[in-house]
Amino acid sequence: MKLQDIILWIVVLLTIIVVLWYIFGNSPSFEQAILVLLLGLSITTLVKLRVLETRFNFLARDFREHSKKR
After folding, report:
1. Contact, 36 vs 18, CB < 8 A?
2. Which long-range contacts (CB under 8 A, 24 or more apart) does 35-41 make?
3. Structural domain of 12
4. Of 1, 2, 3, 28, which one has the greatest count of Cβ atoms within 10 A?
5. For the chain, what is the domain count?
């Protein structure tokens, strides 16, 4: 597993824990639960976007190499 996958799973688990903690009471405020949820979604989106950007860069490089061969 990559470091980004481990961080992603930690954030997802933390988000689930805080949301369940809020649902079952004696918990952080609603705003704090929403903040953790949004933070988790933001980090997840950034990690996925970074992976997509890396794949796109490989694809662009392949197209450049292909066009040079002609």
Report:
1. yes
2. 39/11, 39/15, 40/11, 40/12, 40/14, 40/15, 41/15
3. 3-69
4. 28
5. 1
Question: How confident is the model over 49-57, as a mean pLDDT?
Answer: 83
Yes or no: say if 44 and 8 are a contact pair by the CB < 8 Å rule.
Answer: yes
Q: Is the pLDDT of residue 28 over 80?
A: no
Each residue's pLDDT tens digit, 5-24: 788 888 888 888 888 888 88
pTM, two decimals, is: 0.59
What whole-number distance in Å separates Cα of residue 34 and Cα of residue 22? 10
Q: Distance between CA atoms of 30 and 35, rounded to whole angstroms? A: 9
Phi/psi for 53 (5° steps) reads: -65, -40
